[in-house]
# Entry
Amino acid sequence: MGAVEIWNAMEVAEEARENPNLSSDIRSSSLTVDHSLSLPHMKPRIIELCKDLFKKWSELDDSRFSVETVSGGITNLLLKASVKEESGNDVSVTVRLYGPNTEYVINRERELQAIKYLSAAGFGAKLLGVFGNGMVQSFINARTLIESDMRKPKIAAEIAKQLRKFHEVEIPGSKEPQLWIDISKFFEKASVLEFDDSEKQRMYKMISFKEIHDEIVELKELTGLLNAPVVFAHNDLLCGNLMVNDEEEKLYLIDFEYGSYNYRGFDIGNHFNEYAGYDCDYSLYPNKDEQYHFFRHYLQPDNPLEVPDKDIEALYVESNTYMLASHLYWALWGIIQAKMSPIDFDYLNYFFLRYNEYKRQKEKSFLLARSYLSGSGTR
# Structure
């Protein structure tokens, strides 16, 4: 990351320290950690970072520290750093390294601003410090969900309840929904790329940006007619961003890097798309009964069986129309990542998987929305 991003992170941390209503102990360090290092080579750098951020650890011997990988997503690397303090206490923190070049698709300042308020509202891990290319958070003692967990009725109900609470958090600043702004930015970046790799360039040339542009315009117009509520949305609720402590039966929403004010239906439709996993097996997309179960717990967490049918129907249409926007969003994201990310993942193929699924679902979803808007309901 460049100096500008580091400066922004420092500025946000400084502001957080000065806000009496929020955590007053957010620390900052100008150190960076090379994402490409192997764990043994990265460990001394992580220890140095921890000592720089947490002064009470600065004199401790390196042998008191241990570092292990928690997960490596396709944008971030999560590490667990543990230290045995002089008192004998074992303390762990999570070190999150931003993926290289992710500032092309993620607004880090927006993320750091939101994370303070979400943390104050009880969501995710507590932000403890920021550094040149990442952040340090409290360690959550829980396991990351796998795709099949999300469709278990008990877990699905809990995700719905938590998401409802998440959507009720107030984040200061503009409440303008970001979906079409972000898609437009992604489109501008994605449509002017050139790849050094000839096979990637050949695949890239097969993409019709004129066609994608027309799809964006048409879908934006249709979704605009639904008058979906605008909420502070997670925008990336895949299984890797959900954790559960099975013993305590406690669910955690984590990683708010794509969070912004957005349309309620986009957040839910995007979550349903994630049932398919990175392999994009859309036969796993939740059926109507599974969706209705989710909607009942989202709309009335305390009385899920008393939700009026018309409210469920409206959310069903909204979510399954914005589901299309989720495909366009991540398809375009995939093209940019194919160019910018050094992570070994076939992002261009991911574009085609998402865009082809958009085209497969378009007619059915448009029909559903138009039929609902004309007053004939979803049946």
